[in-house]
TrEMBL record:
Lineage: superkingdom: Bacteria
Keyword Transport: no
Species, as recorded: Nocardiopsis eucommiae
Alphabetical list of Pfam families matching this protein: Abhydrolase_5 (PF12695)
GO MF annotation: an example: hydrolase activity
Annotated ranges, domain Alpha/beta hydrolase fold-5: 85-251
Protein name: Alpha/beta hydrolase
């Protein structure tokens, strides 16, 4: 009896110890998950901000109207709108305002309307269907393109390929970006697609963009702007991991506007 009672007590102690270890382990794991989640949210909510001077220049351009709304940035021609629009997703952790400077000269040349929406936690990964809900801000537009910079472009391509949503997207505008293989765009003959890479892009090199070129329709326009780096597709300052550009920001935006406008104006 004594031996049995002792063994029973030892077993119960081991059981309680195992429960305590399990509870402690779960508490530590939960804490680590919460810390990681908090760090991620803080990281995502600290985006690259628009540089004040390029943004101010875009806002003062008499050929365009730049409006900051509750859902993003709307850039429209001051006169003679073309009836074509582009919804453009920012790159990861880049605020929408940072693309006013690079899109304003395109709008001035073409008369297109551009919407750069704010994205959930500044990540297209979490908001790839955002374009569906913002087109109502420009009811005068009859033809819409979807596009984006870097990760924004990849998830724009993914959304167009999915066929989810009600907007009949006419095509894609990809800046320093690519279409994932799963987007299933290679055989789409109903889309006009532009892909622009920067020759000095240290985040997504022209060769990496070219490797993914087969994921786009065969007649997609693929352009490389020599001397342009990744951050120059917007106006938000230097980006970690990027290469030094060989063009000034003004030269890069001029070259980008020329290529993009030619695509949007083609018959």
């Amino acid at each position: 009896m004594t031996d049995g009672s002792t063994a029973g007590r030892r077993g119960r102690r081991r059981g309680r110890r195992a429960v305590r270890v399990l509870v402690w382990t779960l508490a530590v794991c939960t804490t680590l998950v919460l810390v990681a989640a908090t760090a991620f949210v803080v990281w995502a909510l600290n985006p690259y901000r628009a540089e004040p001077e390029p943004l101010a220049l875009a806002e003062r351009d008499p050929a365009v109207v730049v409006e900051r709304g509750s859902d993003g940035v709307l850039i429209t021609p001051a006169e003679h709108p073309s009836g074509t629009g582009v919804v453009f997703y920012p790159g990861a952790r880049v605020e929408a305002d940072a693309y006013a400077a690079s899109w304003a000269p395109v709008v001035a040349r073409t008369g297109v309307t551009v919407i750069v929406p704010d994205l959930r936690l500044n990540l297209a990964l979490l908001d790839s269907a955002r374009g569906e809900s913002v087109v109502g801000a420009a009811p005068e537009v009859s033809e819409w393109y979807l596009g984006g910079h870097s990760m924004g472009g990849a998830f724009a391509a993914q959304h167009v390929g999915s066929g989810d949503g009600d907007v009949p997207w006419a095509g894609l505008v990809l800046w320093a970006s690519y279409a994932p293989e799963g987007a299933d765009l290679a055989d789409r003959d109903d889309l006009d697609v532009l892909s622009v890479a920067g020759g000095r892009d240290g985040i997504l090199s022209p060769s990496e963009v070219a490797e993914r070129r087969p994921h786009l329709p065969g007649d997609a326009d693929a352009e490389v702007i020599e001397g342009m780096n990744h951050a120059q597709f917007g106006a938000y300052g230097a980006q970690s991991g990027d290469a030094e550009p060989e063009l000034t920001d003004a030269q890069a935006h001029e070259a980008l506007a020329e290529v993009t406008a030619a695509f949007l104006l083609r018959d």
